[in-house]
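Following up on my earlier thread - several people asked me to post the actual chain instead of describing it. Fair enough. Here it is, all 338 residues.
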Amino acid sequence: SYLSNDRSEISTYIMSSLSDDLLYLIFSYSLPSTLCEPNSPPIIRGDDDSISENSSESSDICISPVNFLLVSRSWYNIIMSQRSLWASLNISLKPINEETSLSLTKALRMLQIWFRNSLNSPLDIQLSISGHRRQGTEIGHILELLLGEQHRWSSVSLDATLCNLTTSIMISTRSLTSISLYFDDCSPAVVPVTIDFCGSSQLRTLELRRGVELVPRGPQTLHLQYLDTLHLHPTANADVLATQQLLMAPSKLRVLEIYLPWSDILPTGTIIFPSLTHLRLASGDSECTQIVNLFGRLECPNLTHFAFQAKRIVSDLQISIDFMLGFENFLSRSRPRL
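Reply from S.P.:
Thanks for posting it. Predicted structure:
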């Protein structure tokens, strides 16, 4: 027992002797704050009014940085003074099966506490929700809370599957550097998303995948000078204008992934991407008309990686020949370092 006590005293001394800067680095390594349901971490009781609510059912999730708060008063003071420790969240809400309802109260409460304690710190958020068709109201509250803090978004990823989404999404924030949206098998089938690119000019990564209808905010000449990565999954004819604006916007685009449906969504004339190094194309057209047409107009002088995926079986030999000839012409013209 003496040895055990000595070890405990030594550990206590070492931890208490660490500088505030070093402790901050240690706390930072525990981020992002992660909540996964139904496999949530252990629950602890808290007696601090800034963390726990005054109710018999109130409890604190034992996740970072909450799990460090109750160690000592000095640790508490450091964590509450370093607001950026509350600004990185990863929330995943996936019930065991479609018949299982999952309480979203914990996630809503977590967002409220973290947003309050982070004050004006830039937010990095990953939110993944699956299988909540019957809980549209709760999901709406979460999205409204999230959208209400968009003035300090830095990086945001929103992934929803089998959900009812009734909240319209309008994005306009200069602090935003990365946005990823993915809505699969949701209701409605396509979620309108309006992005004011003039107000979000710091964007470096834009990923608009399945289920997103990009609504252009009037005729804009886009100047996305920092845009590095662009993933687009247009929804038939609805995204034609917005897609064309993005592809023609002056940028230093390095990575492009785009799904081409049957309709002609590409800009007319020659399309030049002088900085593009990674290109991935997918087509839902069994005749590959869009892709062959694109090969004739696309120039990527610095391309190093290329991938193509046909979403439908191409069984016609002539179509395959046309595709290969078009691809060969594209390579010989651009002379990329593949």
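The mean pLDDT is 77. That should answer part of your original question.
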